[in-house]
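Tokens in:
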């Protein structure tokens, strides 16, 4: 891409972020997602770090202002004036809950822990070093509490792997990874509270989760309320408990990046580095499948691996988890008809194996390309020396956006834009990638 074309695309991306700015944080999209989402804010801060340090810092400050007393960082922070969304604050039953920061309205689940990685990115690209130091001093103990919560409350067996208790916690809402676990939930009349979806008013039903999936999503939300969001109780009662490869990889990388932040503050990084090594060792020991040549999620409720190949399963590359031999196996899987052979006609990286039953290039996390996963894989591939594929992946991200706009996700077969438009992390991560040139 020529320098003028890149400059024009960056300017367009900044307009998207300006349009979604709410004064202290950024909504993912103007209509479908009108509030603040947790891992969205982390990726958005990464983009802001390239040109607006104050906004990058504000993005993370606003999110962590709603942190629970347990350390939990909520998936959604609701802004009442921002617009309607389901499930909204009342669906979670948390108004006035003493664990929730005073005045905050939040969901009762989490999203992947990209925040320490984002904070390190913000600090490293800061122009005002004094402001960055103040930001780091404020945010570091909150990041530490967030990671402490995950290791303390979400790893009841002490394995070094944390679990998620709702598909939304993975960020990959309707991935085929969850089909078996959700399918085991047998619903009786009255198990699901009445609800009305709003997403289908903004995006075609062919691109969104099925109604039967949504029923189970809402069943789990009701279950959490019945158990008072007590993590120990839910570890025994929730039918959906998954040790997810993507989530644990990002936690592993996050602990390493948190250790670097500790070092910048003169704190001892050793405990955080040891925790990251423990998680990496557990990912390698429990989640690697030699026959598949890939890392697989583990279903704790049914005590078995989840045999689905998804792009998120390549995330250990971003965390530096595999040795060279396993990294090669992951690369061979990526550079194959299952995903996207280097230089081929398929846009990298489909979110689900193209050879698997149920692959759908237009339905949410069942096939489409997501820029945030591509961003993670770009960095992971580059770190392991797969420079040619990393460069192609970067070009593909830029090309998809240039051709189809700042869409939520993309069809890997056609390159067409899918989901909602003016999507913030697509804009933010594009800015970050183009800033490297």
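Residues out:
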């Amino acid at each position: 891409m020529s320098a003028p074309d890149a400059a024009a695309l960056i300017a367009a991306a900044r307009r998207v972020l300006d349009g979604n700015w709410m004064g202290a944080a950024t909504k993912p999209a103007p209509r479908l997602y009108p509030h603040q989402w947790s891992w969205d804010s982390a990726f958005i801060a990464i983009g802001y770090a390239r040109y607006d340090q104050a906004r990058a810092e504000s993005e993370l400050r606003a999110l962590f202002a709603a942190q629970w007393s347990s350390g939990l960082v909520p998936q959604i922070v609701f802004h009442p004036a921002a617009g309607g969304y389901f499930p909204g604050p009342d669906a979670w039953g948390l108004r006035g809950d003493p664990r929730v920061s005073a005045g905050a309205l939040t969901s009762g689940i989490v999203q992947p822990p990209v925040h320490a990685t984002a904070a390190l990115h913000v600090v490293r690209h800061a122009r005002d070093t004094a402001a960055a130091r103040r930001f780091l001093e404020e945010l570091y103990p909150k990041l530490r509490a967030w990671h402490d919560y995950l290791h303390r409350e979400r790893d009841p067996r002490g394995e070094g792997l944390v679990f998620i208790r709702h598909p939304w916690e993975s960020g990959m809402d309707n991935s085929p990874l969850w089909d078996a676990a959700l399918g085991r939930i047998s619903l009786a009349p009255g198990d699901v509270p009445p609800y009305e979806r709003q997403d289908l008013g903004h995006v075609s039903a062919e691109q969104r989760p099925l109604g039967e999936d949504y029923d189970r999503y809402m069943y789990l939300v009701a279950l959490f309320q019945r158990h008072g969001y007590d993590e120990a109780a839910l570890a025994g009662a929730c039918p959906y408990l998954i040790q997810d490869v993507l989530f644990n990889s990002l936690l592993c990388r996050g602990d390493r990046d948190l250790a670097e932040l500790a070092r910048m503050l003169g704190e001892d990084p050793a405990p955080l580095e040891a925790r990251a090594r423990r998680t990496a060792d557990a990912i390698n020991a429990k989640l690697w499948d030699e026959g598949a040549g890939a890392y697989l999620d583990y279903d704790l409720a049914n005590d078995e691996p989840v045999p689905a190949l998804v792009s998120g399963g390549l995330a250990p590359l971003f965390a530096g988890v595999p040795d060279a031999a396993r990294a090669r196996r992951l690369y061979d899987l990526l550079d194959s008809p299952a995903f996207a052979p280097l230089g081929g006609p398929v846009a990298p990286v489909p979110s689900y194996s193209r050879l698997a039953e149920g692959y759908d290039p237009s339905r949410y996390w069942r096939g489409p390309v997501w820029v945030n996963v591509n961003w993670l894989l770009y960095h992971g591939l580059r770190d392991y020396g797969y420079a040619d594929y990393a460069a192609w992946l970067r070009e593909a991200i830029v090309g998809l956006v240039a051709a189809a706009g700042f869409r939520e996700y993309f069809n890997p077969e056609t390159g067409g834009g899918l989901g909602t438009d003016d999507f913030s992390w697509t804009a933010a991560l594009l800015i970050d990638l183009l800033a490297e040139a």
